[in-house]
Amino acid sequence: MRSFLEIKKHYNFTAEDEKRLLGLSPVMVDNVDKVVNSVHDWIIQTDVALKLFKNDTIMNHIMNQVRKWFISLFSGKYDSAFYDYLIRIGQKHEKAGVDPHFISRAMNIVRNKCIDILSKEIENSEQRAGFLISLEKILDITLDIINASYIEEEIKVYSPAYRLKSRIVGYGEIFSQFLNMALVLGLIIVTLAVVYLCGRDIYEIFVGKLEQTIVTALGSVLILWVMLELINTEIVHLKGGKFKISVFVGVALVTTIREVMISTLKHDSIEFIGALVASVLVIGIIYWLVKRTEEEKR
């Protein structure tokens, strides 16, 4: 399956869409019963669909799941956890033997009911149009992922090679997540060490030479700032966000700048300081190029 980032990019699902959907949350939560009832009414009127529900307990459970899913559409959180949640929905539908046609039809009912709710609740036509665009995107994305995971589950049944491939990929993803969490833990430990270094340098301001210790402490604060940015970047990546190489280049840049400041105070050789300054220039250019590339890919 495609990655969630790729899917969102194809549907042009932006931060503005996330903001709109989150803004719709109060309205949609208040009207969630109407949506659930619409799906329920369609099921009981469709003999083929009704056969999947053997008793009222199963029906109530499914309706509660529909309610949970619908509310999640307006949570404002569209990360890897949301992506995995939709995949599991598709997998469960495949195991239950639900025809993809009925999934699409149910989504159509939800879509129509949402349009009806927007028409009644949002008076401003321009604002309503914006909400509708974002709503259409998230419903299309949801249907895309559910159906894709459904098809993938079907392929696994008939293709041992594909089943083996899926298992290997699954284990690889678990291993990758484990390494990412280990990386975050490592960054936290390093950041704590930087905090200690920063605290020590600040302490030196009061007991050492003021002009030297202030510059050293400033360099430590810069490194601490970059470490925090590194942790935030990795957390965003774990949630399904983009991985920013520029942050790592920034670490090298700030570290080198700190060395220049310290070397200047120590009165190191001109050649050594010149080499550090040249390094700052080169890393700075690399940082600018990487940052520019990341901005263009947004």
Please tag this protein with its features:
298 residues; mainly alpha; Globin-like; transmembrane helix; Heme-binding sensor globin domain-containing protein; transmembrane
The chain-level mean pLDDT equals 83
Report the portion of residues in β strands.
Answer: under 5%
* N-to-C span: 22 Å
CATH superfamily of the largest domain: Globins
**Rg of Cα set:** 27 Å
Label the CATH architecture of the largest domain. Orthogonal Bundle
Using the coordinates above, name the CATH class of the largest domain: Mainly Alpha
Main sheet summary: none
Q: Could you tell me the number of beta strands?
A: 0
Helix content: over 70%
Number of domains: 2
Q: What is the H/E order? A: HHHHHHHHHHHH
Which geometry do the CA atoms define?
A: elongated
- Ranges where pLDDT stays below 50 over 5 or more residues in a row are none
What is the SS-derived class? mainly alpha
In DSSP terms (H or I, runs of 4 or more residues), the helix count works out at 12
**CATH-defined fold name of the largest domain:** Globin-like
GO molecular function, one term: oxygen binding
Protein name: Heme-binding sensor globin domain-containing protein
Domain Globin-sensor: 4-154
Transmembrane segments: 174-197, 212-231, 243-260, 272-290
